[in-house]
Amino acid sequence: MKRKLLFLLDHAEEIVLVPGFAIMLLIGFCNVLSRFILHQSWSFTEEMCVMMFVYVTFFGASVAVKRKAHLGFTLYLDKSRGMTRIVLDTFIMLAVVLFLVLMVVYGVKVCQNQLKYKAVTAALRISTAYASASVPIGGACILLRIIQMYVRDIRADIREYHALKERKKV
User: Fold this and answer.
1) Residue-wise over 113-149: b if at least 16 C-beta within 10 A, else e?
2) Phi, psi (degrees; rounded to nearest 5) at 120
3) Closest by alpha carbon to 142, among 72, 86, 49, 41?
């Protein structure tokens, strides 16, 4: 049971990402077939695909952070060693965390306003908060992965720092 829960937590984004992308692809493909065969377009497919695309993008970004495959400028971090690397890594993490916290907080506020004013989409007639919720949900997932990766990286940096200190003693 514990192993399954750890697997689910470790792969939560992929569990949402893969079916979400497949559904988005299927809806788009069916709409194209409908246009060619029935000469009629389904109006709701564009809204659904755009909403799902935003969710897929955020969950994909979270997976990229987890795999350290996200786009980043790491020239100074890669060249630094010891305490400089620890301080630089911490500064970068704090800047990213601040940005993500602001993104989540203001994303929640946007959703609350959309619910308050009962904003709905044009074709589906569902609350626009469902689409906007991708920002705080995706931001929270990325935030958790950033913290998880920072803890892993800082442990390695500290081990390296202590190893450098020991070599200098000898």
Assistant:
1) ebeeeeeebeebeebbbbbbbbbbbbbbbbbbbbeeb
2) -125, 160
3) 72
Closest CA to 82 of 2, 3, 26, 159: 159
For residue range 35-80, list pLDDT tens digits in order: 999 999 888 999 999 999 999 999 999 999 999 887 777 788 888 8
> Rounded to an integer, what is the distance from CA 38 to the centroid of its chain?
38
Q: How far is CA 78 from CA 37, 70, 73, 107, 147, in A?
A: 55, 15, 9, 33, 19
Residues composing the chain: 170
Count other Cβ atoms within 10 Å, centred on residue 169: 5
Q: For the CA atoms of the chain, what is the radius of gyration?
A: 21
Adjacent-strand bridge partners of 120: 127
- Residues of the chain with pLDDT > 70, as a percent, come to 99
Say if residues 158 and 85 touch (Cβ distance below 8 Å). Answer: no
Burial of residue 54 (number of CB atoms within 10 Å: 0-12, 13-18, 19+): middle
Eight-class DSSP state of 70: S
